[in-house]
């Protein structure tokens, strides 16, 4: 199985990250090639903490941070994906993109940019791009040919509203526009860093990332002999890859050094796996109403999960272990600037939906 190293090799080779403001001569050090270079209705924010989550102890107001960042991202998404011709495809894109959600990936992107000293404005386009791609993955994941789900974020899934054909195209359009928006809307950042970020995002969602995890997940559904190594491969790629990319993008665009990007990459890889472990736990401990999606779905299709392999108690212990290991990667950063990422890790492990 591939080790938990989605970007480590790239980070080691990318000398541009050693320089906050690289010169044009550094462009040649990039080893990969990039793939290519409204309405005013309110948008729901579902990232406010309640219950167990509210007891998280942090040195700053995490609820206020969540609301502030989610509001910035939601406004940017609403502006970016306006209704234009042909209206149906844009309505389908907006239906899922603006349906609420915790906006964890955009917040990770912004927090990573700020922890290395970059301004929020440098990360907003990338934060929107990862949310567009995340939404694409949800639209496609819910299709009958994939996980076949009828409920997402408490609402009928995209294909139930617009049909399977339009849902596929809405996901495709969000994927394409994510790269266009990130490449054209990012300002005040060296072009070499934008190029590096685009390449990293493309890698994270292709056959080295999200797609690889999805394919193995599909092949393993219903299989009786799926082990922990295979399960980890699925989730490192299917779930953790985009979460990790969110953090790496923010660090790159914020001017982070090689060492800073590497530490934040490890942090994100661990919370990415943590996110999926918690998802597996919630699937067997919460109702559909609490989750906003169909509960017990993994068990119904005999999908391999951490509670299934480890037992519920051991899965909870594993989640706590990942959380502590992730936060340990933040020890060399300014504690005040690291507080949002540490709190986001705690939020992921304690979330209730």
Describe this structure in words.
- α2 packs across α5 and α4 packs antiparallel against α16.
- 63% of the residues lie in helices and 1% in strands.
- The relative contact order is 0.15.
- A hairpin with a 2-residue loop joins β1 and β2 (155-156).
- The two termini are 30 Å apart.
- With 353 residues, the protein is mostly helical.
- The chain contains 16 helices and 2 strands.
- It has helices at residues 8-13, 62-80, 87-97, 104-115, 120-141, 158-162, 164-185, 191-205, 210-220, 228-253, 258-285, 288-291, 297-300, 306-310, 312-328, 335-350, and strands at residues 151-152, 155-156.
- Mean pLDDT is 82; it is low at 1-58.
- It has a two-stranded antiparallel sheet.
- The radius of gyration is 19 Å and the shape is globular.
What is the structure about, briefly put?
This protein has helices at residues 8-13, 62-80, 87-97, 104-115, 120-141, 158-162, 164-185, 191-205, 210-220, 228-253, 258-285, 288-291, 297-300, 306-310, 312-328, 335-350; strands at residues 151-152, 155-156.
Task: Annotate the secondary structure layout.
Elements: H1 8-13, H2 62-80, H3 87-97, H4 104-115, H5 120-141, E1 151-152, E2 155-156, H6 158-162, H7 164-185, H8 191-205, H9 210-220, H10 228-253, H11 258-285, H12 288-291, H13 297-300, H14 306-310, H15 312-328, H16 335-350
Antiparallel strand pairs: 1-2
Helix pairs in contact: 2-5, 3-7, 4-5, 4-10, 4-16, 5-7, 5-10, 8-10, 9-10, 10-11, 11-15, 11-16, 15-16
């Amino acid at each position: 199985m591939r080790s938990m190293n989605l970007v480590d090799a790239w980070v080691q080779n990318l000398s541009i990250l050693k320089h906050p403001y690289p010169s044009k001569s550094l462009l040649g050090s990039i080893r990969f090639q990039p793939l290519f270079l409204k309405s005013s209705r309110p948008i729901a924010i579902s990232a406010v903490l309640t219950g167990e989550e509210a007891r998280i102890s942090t040195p700053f107001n995490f609820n206020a941070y969540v609301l502030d960042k989610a509001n910035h991202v939601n406004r940017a998404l609403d502006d970016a994906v306006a209704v234009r011709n042909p209206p149906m495809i844009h309505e389908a894109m907006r239906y899922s993109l603006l349906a609420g959600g915790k906006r964890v990936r955009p917040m990770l992107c912004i927090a990573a940019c700020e922890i290395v000293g970059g301004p929020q404005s440098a990360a907003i386009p990338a934060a929107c791009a990862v949310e567009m791609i995340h939404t694409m993955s949800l639209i496609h994941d819910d299709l009958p040919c994939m996980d076949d789900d009828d409920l997402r974020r408490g609402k009928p899934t995209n294909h139930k509203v617009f049909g399977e054909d339009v849902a596929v195209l809405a996901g495709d359009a969000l994927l394409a526009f994510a790269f266009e928006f990130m490449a054209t809307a990012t300002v005040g950042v060296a072009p070499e860093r934008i190029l590096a970020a685009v390449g990293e995002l493309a890698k994270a969602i292709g056959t080295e990332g999200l797609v690889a995890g999805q394919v193995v997940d599909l092949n393993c559904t219903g299989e009786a002999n799926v082990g922990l190594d295979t399960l980890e491969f699925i989730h490192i790629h299917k779930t953790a890859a985009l979460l990790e990319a969110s953090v790496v993008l923010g660090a790159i665009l914020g001017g982070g050094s090689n060492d800073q990007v590497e530490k934040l990459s490890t942090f994100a890889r661990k919370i990415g796996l943590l996110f999926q472990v918690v998802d597996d736990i919630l699937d067997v401990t919460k109702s559909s109403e609490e989750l906003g999606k169909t509960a017990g779905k993994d068990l119904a299709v005999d999908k391999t999960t951490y509670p299934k392999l480890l037992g519920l108690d051991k899965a909870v212990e594993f989640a706590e272990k990942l959380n502590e290991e992730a936060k340990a990667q933040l020890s060399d950063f300014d504690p005040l600037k690291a507080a949002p990422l540490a709190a986001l890790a705690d939020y992921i492990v304690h979330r209730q939906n």
